[in-house]
Automatic annotation (TrEMBL):
This is Glycoside hydrolase family 43 protein. Keywords: Hydrolase. The keyword Cytoplasm does not apply. GO terms for molecular function: hydrolase activity. InterPro entries: GH43_arabinanases, Glyco_hydro_beta-prop_sf.
């Protein structure tokens, strides 16, 4: 059997204010189509976290030399007593929740790893990318850092993006700030280009005057200081509030140009969930909307990551979870 690129896995959670779906769900593409999806496991979650806050949101998956690592925010918003965004923002979990797998089918027991500094308010929307030059993973997330030492309220400042490095998702280097914007910035996602450049997308707080909303930058390396902004306000044609960008390159098709997809997560109205854009020149910042009727994804599919698969991985996932 050929083991070339075939199919895609989407790891995500489901927005359900009346239930408890802040768990890890898998959706699989229909064949090699990156715009047609089905939830696996009969629509039920595949992985669950019951310690910490009792739920997880915003999962991300990365392929490494020895398998896969899935990380997520330790956060349950829809609790029986109702959400408390003030508490989440200023006194939320400083932990990531981590699962490991050699094959996408067998998964380790989840563990919590503290990454945000002492006094930080949260560790939201973690993602990771493999730095092939060092063999390390760059892991990044959004944290509100401690405000003025004289502030006795316990409030933290605007969110910024922190990053750390790890080889095993157990021990991490001291985090440092890699991205800041006035009013706060969250939801960083990174993609590597073949020419060595790096694309990154993030979300500036909507309420800040002149906010860039979802914006795209291109730079010379994972932690370089030469990033230039090539797009702002991405996805504003979809809804007033969009967040959680994810980006991936589609498998190549003979005779066709390279194709990338950028999804943004609409949360202005129910049902919430992703809308897709596409480009054959992603570093340009020019993204064309995919018509809604050409994008088949179950509603309330929320903030996650797409992993392009190999043919044997696609078959194994379908055999395991249907």
């Amino acid at each position: 059997m050929s083991d070339d690129g075939f199919g895609y896995l989407l790891v995500h959670f489901v927005e359900d204010p009346s239930g408890h779906s802040e768990k890890i769900f898998f959706s699989l593409s229909r064949g090699d189509d990156p715009l047609a999806w089905e939830r696996m496991n009969g629509g039920e979650p595949v992985l669950e976290w019951t310690s910490g806050t009792g739920g997880v949101r915003d999962p991300h998956i990365v392929r490494g030399p020895e398998g896969f690592h899935l990380i997520a925010t330790d956060l349950r918003v829809w609790r029986p007593e109702g959400p408390d965004w003030g508490a989440y923002r200023h006194r939320g979990s400083r932990d990531l929740v981590v699962w490991d797998s050699p094959d996408l089918v067998t998964w380790s027991t989840p563990r919590a790893v503290t990454v945000a500094p002492e006094g930080a308010g949260m560790a939201w929307a973690p993602e990771s990318v493999l730095d092939s030059s060092t063999g390390e993973f760059l892991v990044h997330w959004a944290s509100g850092l401690p405000a003025d030492a004289g502030d006795s309220t316990g409030a933290t400042g605007p969110a910024c993006i922190l990053a750390s490095r790890t080889r095993d998702f157990r021990t991490f280097t001291e985090p440092r700030i890699v991205l800041e914007r006035p009013g706060g910035v969250i939801d960083l996602t990174i993609a590597l280009l073949d020419d060595g450049r790096v694309m990154r997308f993030a979300k500036q707080d909507d309420a800040y005057p002149g906010s860039w909303r979802i914006f795209q930058q291109v730079g010379g390396g994972l932690e370089s200081d030469d990033y230039t902004t090539v797009a702002r306000g991405i996805g504003q044609h979809i809804a007033e509030h969009v967040e959680g960008p994810l980006v991936f390159r589609a498998h190549p098709r003979a005779g066709e140009p390279e194709r990338w997809y950028l999804w943004v997560d609409q949360y202005s109205r129910m049902p919430q969930g992703y809308h897709a854009l596409t480009s054959d020149d992603p570093a340009s910042g020019r993204w064309e909307p995919v018509p809604d009727d050409a994008f088949d994804l179950p509603p309330n599919t929320k903030h996650g990551a797409v992993l392009p698969l190999r043919r044997h991985e696609y078959s194994a996932l379908r055999e395991r979870w249907g």
